């Protein structure tokens, strides 16, 4: 299996050029073809010699993703199921907002975190994606947007997988995305979302970035969180909050909390009050996400009234809170469902 070209940094491509008897700037030209001109084959890299193009073709692969399914919503959301070289499948979503287009990327094939409301975890973790396989999702999205004269303005790492369990690949992906000679996505327009892998929250606090951090919290206390998210038994609620306080003290950055509202489970006024008690001293923002019906778990949707009441209680305590606008509702597909369906069929 040839390595994927998107796995390599600019410096590594420059080094590769030198190792192949070429000046380092050839590496920069390759980087430009990948991220600025966004070609799909080495043959199109017309300012490189035939010999160098042949070497690239011989040593690297460039096509990481094969489109299996594409679903387009009336609201502009486009959801893809992509096949990988080893026949695994992953989901990528392009969401259209009034401020631009965001891409939601996947970092692992499946997930072992086991959140009880999530279809992505039903078959467990198959493997980590490489940085290049994550990069390819954004490049492909940008190629699709190129046809409309639009660009990827933000990235959320909220697709299938736990990015902090694939930490090195995620960080390499992020560095490639923000590279000024590449897609040059603004750091403040990128959000990485974790279920609370405590050691890597501390590690992320030490990275010198402006990238946003989101935490899937989903419960206001240890006992309920352990029921909804088995990962909480490994990294308990209080330890997660402590690591976030450290992150905030270190970076001064606002943290986003994702809270999936599940009817009758974690969406009652007492849950909102308890959550407000924990978060009101933090610089943060809470996103409430009413979950879709998950047949495997018998979960139901929170009523409209309960959603607004939950929001009101948090806001009254001074917590910054919004209800996540649903996108792509008509193409169904809560995260992971497209892939789950594909696995059933396969
Ligand atoms: S919500 Fe995210 S972390 Fe939890 S099981 Fe699903 S993919 Fe994994």
From TrEMBL:
Domain of life per record: Bacteria
Gene3D superfamilies: 1.10.150.530, Aldolase class I (3.20.20.70)
Localization in the cell: Cytoplasm
Keyword vocabulary terms for this entry: 4Fe-4S, Cytoplasm, Disulfide bond, Iron, Iron-sulfur, Metal-binding, Methyltransferase, rRNA processing, S-adenosyl-L-methionine, Transferase, tRNA processing
Active site: 91, 335
Pfam family, one: RlmN_N
Location, primary (coarse class): cytoplasm
EC numbers for this chain: 2.1.1.192
CDD domains: Radical_SAM
Cofactors named for this entry: [4Fe-4S] cluster
Enzyme class: transferase
Binding site for S-adenosyl-L-methionine: 161-162, 193, 216-218, 292
GO molecular function: methyltransferase activity
Coiled-coil zones: none
SUPFAM superfamilies named among the record's database cross-references: Radical SAM enzymes
Reactions the enzyme catalyzes: adenosine(37) in tRNA + 2 reduced [2Fe-2S]-[ferredoxin] + 2 S-adenosyl-L-methionine = 2-methyladenosine(37) in tRNA + 5'-deoxyadenosine + L-methionine + 2 oxidized [2Fe-2S]-[ferredoxin] + S-adenosyl-L-homocysteine; adenosine(2503) in 23S rRNA + 2 reduced [2Fe-2S]-[ferredoxin] + 2 S-adenosyl-L-methionine = 2-methyladenosine(2503) in 23S rRNA + 5'-deoxyadenosine + L-methionine + 2 oxidized [2Fe-2S]-[ferredoxin] + S-adenosyl-L-homocysteine
Free-text remark on how the cofactor is bound: Binds 1 [4Fe-4S] cluster. The cluster is coordinated with 3 cysteines and an exchangeable S-adenosyl-L-methionine.
Radical SAM core domain segment(s): 97-330
GO biological process, one term: methylation
Residues that coordinate or bind [4Fe-4S] cluster: 111, 115, 118
Membership in a protein family: Belongs to the radical SAM superfamily. RlmN family.
Job of this protein: Specifically methylates position 2 of adenine 2503 in 23S rRNA and position 2 of adenine 37 in tRNAs.
Miscellaneous remark of the record: Reaction proceeds by a ping-pong mechanism involving intermediate methylation of a conserved cysteine residue.
Name of protein: Probable dual-specificity RNA methyltransferase RlmN
Species whose genome carries this gene: Paenibacillus auburnensis
């Amino acid at each position: 299996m040839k390595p994927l070209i998107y796995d390599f940094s600019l410096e590594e491509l420059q080094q590769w050029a030198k190792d192949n008897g070429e000046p380092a700037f050839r590496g920069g030209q390759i980087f430009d073809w990948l991220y600025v001109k966004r070609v799909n084959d080495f043959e199109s890299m017309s300012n490189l010699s035939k010999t160098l193009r042949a070497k690239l073709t011989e040593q690297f692969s460039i096509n990481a993703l094969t489109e299996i399914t594409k679903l387009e919503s009336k609201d502009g959301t486009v959801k893809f199921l992509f096949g990988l070289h080893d026949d695994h499948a992953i989901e990528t979503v392009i969401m259209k907002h009034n401020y631009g287009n965001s891409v939601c990327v996947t970092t692992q094939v499946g997930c072992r975190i086991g959140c009880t409301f999530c279809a992505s975890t039903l078959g467990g973790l198959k493997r980590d994606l490489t940085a290049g396989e994550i990069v390819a999702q954004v490049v492909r999205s940008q190629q699709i947007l190129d046809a409309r004269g639009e660009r990827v303005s933000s990235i959320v790492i909220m697709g299938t997988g736990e990015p902090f369990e694939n930490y090195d690949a995620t960080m390499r992906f992020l560095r490639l995305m923000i590279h000024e000679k590449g897609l040059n996505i603004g750091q403040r327009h990128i959000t990485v979302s974790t279920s609370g892998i405590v050691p890597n929250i501390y590690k992320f606090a030490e990275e010198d970035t402006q990238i946003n951090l989101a935490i899937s919290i989903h419960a206001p206390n240890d006992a309920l969180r352990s029921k909804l998210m088995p990962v909480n038994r490994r990294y308990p609620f209080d330890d997660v909050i402590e690591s976030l306080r450290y992150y905030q003290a270190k970076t001064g950055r606002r943290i986003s909390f994702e809270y999936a509202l599940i009817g009758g489970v974690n969406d009652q006024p007492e849950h909102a009050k308890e959550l407000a008690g924990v978060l009101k001293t933090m610089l943060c923002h809470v996103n409430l996400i009413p979950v879709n019906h998950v047949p495997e778990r018998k979960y139901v949707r929170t009523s409209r009234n309960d959603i607004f009441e939950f929001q009101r209680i948090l806001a009254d305590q001074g917590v910054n809170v919004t209800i996540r606008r649903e996108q792509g509702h008509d193409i169904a597909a809560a995260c992971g469902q497209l892939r789950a369906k594909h696995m059933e069929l396969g």
